[in-house]
Write a structure and sequence with these properties.
heterodimer, A: mainly alpha, B: alpha+beta, Alpha-Beta Plaits, 2 domains, four-stranded antiparallel beta sheet, 6 helices, 4 strands, 49% helix, elongated, transmembrane helix (chain B), Quinol:cytochrome c oxidoreductase membrane protein (chain B), ActD (chain B)
């Protein structure tokens, strides 16, 4: 096999001695102009797909599917923003060069928090069209809905017992609390990151230590709070689409899915940026390989949790729990379920086993794009079968509204991508006042 | 094993991995092929400079893993459907979800063992004697803080004088001739 692809980024022209010495930090650290072009493309995609999505207003069942598909698109953006925050905090606590090169893209993802905050308002205002607990917000309304045959007795009983967490007021409180907490941590981390680079003592050990401790102290406890609050958010706004179901691993599954998606997007961003300075100089194959391995770990962890959840519920075979899977396996859903396992796990797993592919820039572009695509299949499989018209009955005839799941999430994610790229352009792509920066300039073999 | 006599090769000692990688790359360009780098920790670029990265171990690991998967899963299927069929909670005899975990465990076990034994089979370990340990600076430095490049005598391009001059061109700490 050719060895050429082993040498991405490594300068093997040995014309004179010293080629393996440290590189110098590029003089310009801002994002290349091409990011502006990507941003324009994202805007165009968002507009085109949004316009196409308007057609679903005139299709039978289109309006309700528009809202469900919007939730799916929104959750993808939420995962990017929240996952980036989680990665940022974990890297501040653990250190590591992989996270140093990834830091500014992650920060850019987190700074979309206000957009993510605002993008959720349509769901909040129309929540009664999505959630039983919002349509029938108290015990009396639930009982009434049961008596008139709108909901089953199980739905009435479980929704009544979950009113503390699942009610419109409680949903508003949790929405504000979760995204408010994220916004607070994100604001501080991003503010400090700029202050750190502007530190008059930058480059000294005292400055390194001061900022390291400061970031660690905020990130450590915030990781814990984030995981708890994020779990609450996905339980209220995704899991409760089926008000009768219970799963204690649900939040964690979303957390892992966030890692999966964010790492794929982060690697993709870095590889595309590595055609231009400053990332061209800074992004070594070593870090790409490390991130590839981490991505592989998330692929594995994701199937581990997903399958463990399934195996436990399958073994228990309890009437409370098993319908959730039956709705997602029977009536045509088997195809989606299989596609989910194959695209979300099997294909990335097999591909990422290869060391050569993890180190290849051109191949990893396609792998990461495919993995982001696979996230959409997974979210579709999680969301759509919650609704009565789709549970255990995937059909297109007389149900063209379901095609909104193709156009709306693309529009929503492209819309989010526009803001992500805008934020990416606003800061230098390298955080200079960090000892890892110097290490990134060293040759690949200098461990 | 035949008894070797005479010169095993010339060994150049370097203080940094950069110098080692550079010298190795240049030696490869000059046409040397029978050579080896010795470093206290893995230096991937040195392996690349040696054009040494393709071994049979990944393939053995993969095949071992697949063998484990087929064996583990197949055994579960055979036991539960043919060998000793039991009605467990009214589930079908072929209850594939239950077989996944043992299949997975066997995959890991076989893949791990194949990788470990495959590595041992391919790298010639355990090896009780190696000529390089005749060089005192190698004994002292190879596992602590020195980086060595050995150009071996059975390379067609090897010449006791010219190869020494070639290696000295990279300003190593020393160039030592090692006997068998």
């Amino acid at each position: 096999m050719s060895l050429e692809h082993e040498h991405h980024g490594a300068d093997l022209t040995h014309g004179n001695a010293g080629h393996h010495g440290p590189k110098t930090l590029p003089s310009v650290l801002t994002a290349p102009a091409v990011v502006g072009a990507w941003r324009t493309r994202a805007a165009i995609v968002a507009v085109i797909f949004a316009v196409v999505s308007l057609a679903f207003f005139f299709v039978p069942g289109g309006k309700s599917h528009l809202l469900r598909a919007y939730l799916m698109g929104y959750m993808t953006c939420f995962n990017f923003c929240g996952g980036a925050l989680a990665f940022l905090m974990v890297q501040y606590v653990s250190g590591g060069k992989w996270g140093q090169i990834l830091r500014r893209p992650l920060e850019a993802m987190t700074r979309t928090i206000w957009v993510v905050f605002a993008m959720f308002l349509p769901v909040m205002f129309w929540m009664k069209h999505l959630y039983i607990w919002a349509a029938y917000p108290n015990k009396a309304a639930l009982l009434d809905a049961y008596k008139t045959g709108h909901i089953t007795q199980e739905q009435q009983l479980t929704a009544s017992s979950k009113l503390t967490m699942l009610s419109p007021t409680s949903a508003w409180v949790q929405y504000l609390l979760v995204l408010g907490f994220m916004a607070l941590v994100i604001t501080l981390l991003n503010k400090w990151s700029v202050q750190r680079d502007n530190d008059p003592r930058a480059g000294t050990l005292a400055s390194f230590d001061k900022w390291r401790v400061k970031f660690e102290n905020l990130s450590g406890p915030s990781i814990l709070f984030y995981v708890i609050l994020m779990s609450a958010f996905v339980i209220v706004f995704v899991k409760s689409l089926d008000v009768t179901w219970y799963s204690s691993v649900y939040g964690l599954q979303f957390l892992v899915a966030q890692g999966y998606a964010v790492l794929a997007l982060g690697i993709l961003t870095l590889i595309l940026l590595s055609r231009y300075e400053p990332i061209k100089t800074m992004f070594r194959t070593t870090e790409q390989h490390d991130m590839g391995k981490l991505l592989f770990a998330f692929v594995m962890l994701n199937i581990y949790l997903t399958f463990a959840e399934f195996l436990i519920i399958w073994s228990g075979n309890l009437p409370d729990e098993i319908p959730w899977y039956l709705h997602r396996i029977h009536g045509g859903w088997w195809y989606v379920c299989s596609a989910d396992v194959i695209c979300h796990w099997l294909i990335p797993f097999c591909i990422l086993l290869s060391r050569d592919i993890k180190r290849s820039k051109s191949k990893m572009i396609w792998v990461t794009v495919f993995m982001i695509f696979a996230r959409f299949i997974d979210m579709f499989w999680l969301i759509e079968p919650n609704f009565k018209d789709a549970a255990g009955n995937l059909h297109l005839a007389g149900n063209f509204g379901i095609l909104a799941y193709i156009t709306v999430p693309v529009a929503v994610v492209a819309f989010w991508m526009f803001f992500y790229l805008t934020e990416l352009m606003r800061r230098p792509l390298i955080n200079v006042n960090d000892p890892h920066t110097q290490e990134l300039l060293e040759p690949e073999h200098a461990h | 094993m035949p008894v070797h006599e005479g010169v095993y090769g010339l060994i150049a000692e370097f203080n940094t991995p950069s110098e080692l990688v550079h010298a190795t790359e240049m030696a490869h360009r000059a046409g040397y092929r029978r050579m080896e780098c010795y470093t206290p920790y893995p230096v991937e670029e040195a392996a690349e400079a040696l054009r040494f990265h393709k071994t049979g171990v990944p393939l053995m690991c993969l095949l071992g893993g697949l063998m484990g998967l087929v064996t583990g899963y197949g055994m579960e299927v055979w036991v539960n459907t043919l060998g000793y069929p039991l009605n467990i909670a009214g589930r079908p005899l072929f209850s594939w979800p239950a077989f996944v975990i043992p299949g997975y465990e066997w995959t890991i076990l076989f893949a791990g063992l194949s990788a470990a034994f495959g590595m041992l089979a391919q790298n010639g370990l355990p090896q009780l004697y190696h000529p390089l340990f005749n060089a005192p600076n190698f004994r002292d430095g190879a596992t602590t803080d020195k980086f060595f490049l050995c150009l071996e005598a059975h390379d067609p391009k090897f010449s006791a004088t010219e190869t020494r001059v070639f290696l000295e061109g990279f300003s190593p700490v020393s160039v030592v001739e090692v006997d068998h």
